[in-house]
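FORM 12-B: Structure-to-Sequence Request
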């Protein structure tokens, strides 16, 4: 989490990508049928509906904003071990307009003025680890042209 505080934009981007991945895995876990049954039994029915509506709203943005894992290019002896050479296709670039739209959705989801079930868990966890996360996201969004206040 200290990568959020790095001066290098690439390191901050890696930190955001790792955070997005963790949030996405959490949301996917919550969508499991057994977990949904447990949540329905434990949570107030209204809060449970809000939680899953929120997960449904942010999951497409999480998936879109998550950068694909970089594949290390094999060189030297490592390239000899592969046996068969495979051509790796470069992942297609993301549409800047769509990326801004999804980033804005996630930024609005992180707005602490509109606290909701999923946000409480994530904001509470992140503020314990790195209180400047929201500042980092604001800087990143402003750099991409989205006016974040």
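FORM 12-B RESPONSE
SEQUENCE OUT:
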């Amino acid at each position: 989490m200290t990568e959020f505080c790095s001066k290098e934009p690439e390191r901050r981007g890696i930190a955001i990508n790792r955070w997005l991945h963790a949030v996405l895995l959490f949301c996917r876990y919550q969508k499991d049928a057994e977990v949904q049954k447990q949540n329905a039994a434990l949570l107030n029915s209204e809060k449970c509906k809000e939680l899953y509506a929120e997960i449904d709203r942010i999951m497409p943005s999480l998936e879109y904003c998550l950068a694909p894992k970089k594949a290390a290019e094999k060189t030297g002896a490592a390239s000899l071990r592969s046996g068969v050479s495979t051509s790796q296709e470069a992942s297609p670039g993301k549409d800047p307009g769509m990326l801004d739209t999804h980033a804005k959705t996630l930024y609005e989801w992180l707005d602490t003025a509109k606290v909701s079930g999923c946000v409480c868990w994530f904001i509470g966890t992140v503020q314990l680890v790195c209180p400047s996360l929201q500042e980092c996201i604001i800087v990143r969004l402003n750099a991409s042209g989205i006016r974040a206040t």
